[in-house]
Amino acid sequence: MSSVKKSGTPSIEDDLIERSTLARRWKCHRETIRRKEKTGQLHPLQLGERMIRYRLSEVLAIEAAAARKGGFGYLIKAKE
User: Fold this and answer.
1) What is the crossing angle of helices 30-38 and 19-26, to 10°?
2) What was the pLDDT predicted at 3?
3) Which of 26, 28, 59, 69 is the residue whose CA sits 20 to 30 A from 34?
4) What per-residue confidence (pLDDT) applies to 7?
5) CATH of the domain at 57
6) Residue (of 63, 43, 66) closest to 53 by Cα position
């Protein structure tokens, strides 16, 4: 069973990002992204049976919080 939940339908204003794109952006493995989902640190949107996306606004907020807490390395290593 998948841990991905339908988090509502994104509005037309939402910019969405794919899991693989997010992994490249954060310079981590896709499994790290999945672990962030399971711990509730990242909220995926399931748009189809196999189509998972993330709101760019949430990604940017997470990055900003990580920068305030001591840099991007904190984001990847925190709570894993």
Assistant:
1) 100
2) 46
3) 69
4) 53
5) 1.10.1660
6) 43
In a domain, 62, yes or no: yes
Facing residues of 18 across strands? 53
The predicted pLDDT at position 15 comes to: 92
Q: Can you give the residue range of the structural domain that contains 54?
A: 16-75
Average pLDDT for 2-24? 72
List of residues 6+ apart from 56 with CB closer than 8 A: 14, 15, 16, 17
Instruction: Give CA–CA dist 31/54, Å, rounded.
Output: 15
Structure confidence at residue 80 (pLDDT): 43
What's residue 65's pLDDT? 87
How many angstroms separate the Cα of 25 from the Cα of each of 3, 13, 14, 73? Answer: 22, 21, 18, 13
Strand order in the sheet with 16-18: 16-18, 52-55, 45-46
